[in-house]
């Protein structure tokens, strides 16, 4: 299964490590420091021109073949879609029907 992050961009749901609200993440000094290092190391990708509302942390295996397990690569995507919406789409949050 895939999750649409905005624009024409999708990721495999099984590769998602975390979906974070950008405002909440930027309130924490530890999260700010983490994102600063990720920016410096060029792990962060903006997927569209719109203002980002969430951060999606993804780890995927590259160059996987029969002989080698492949290298793990972590990428952080800034998405214009809210974290709550992405979490619901991915099936991470299940809403209960109203009575």
Descriptive notes:
This protein is α+β, with helices and mostly antiparallel strands. It has one domain. The chain has helices spanning 22-27, 29-40, 83-90; strands spanning 2-6, 9-12, 16-21, 44-46, 54-62, 71-79. The model has no long low-confidence stretch (mean pLDDT 88). Pfam families: RemA-like (PF04025).
Q: What layout of secondary structure does this protein have?
A:
Layout: E1 2-6, E2 9-12, E3 16-21, H1 22-27, H2 29-40, E4 44-46, E5 54-62, E6 71-79, H3 83-90
Parallel strand pairs: 4-6
Antiparallel strand pairs: 1-2, 3-5, 5-6
Protein name: DUF370 domain-containing protein
Pfam families: RemA-like (PF04025)
Organism: Clostridium formicaceticum
How much of the sequence lies in strands comes to 35-45%
Radius of gyration computed on alpha carbons? 15 Å
How are the strands of the biggest sheet laid out side by side? 3-5-6-4
Low-confidence stretches: none
What is the domain tally? 1
Report the strand count. 6
Q: Can you write the helix and strand succession as a string?
A: EEEHHEEEH
What's the helix count? 3
**Alpha-carbon distance between the two ends:** 30 Å
How can the largest sheet be summarized?
4 strands, mixed
Average the pLDDT over all residues and give the rounded result. 88
Structural class: alpha+beta
Molecular shape? globular
Helix content: 25-40%
């Amino acid at each position: 299964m895939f999750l649409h992050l905005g624009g024409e961009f999708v990721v495999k749901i099984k590769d998602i490590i975390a979906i974070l609200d950008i405002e909440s993440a930027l309130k924490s000094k530890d999260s700010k420091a983490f994102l600063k290092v990720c920016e410096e190391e060029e792990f962060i990708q903006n997927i569209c021109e719109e203002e980002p509302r969430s951060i999606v942390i993804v780890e995927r295996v590259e160059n996987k073949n029969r002989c080698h397990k492949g290298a793990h690569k972590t990428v952080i995507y800034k998405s214009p879609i809210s974290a709550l919406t992405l979490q619901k789409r991915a099936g991470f949050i299940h809403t209960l029907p109203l009575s």
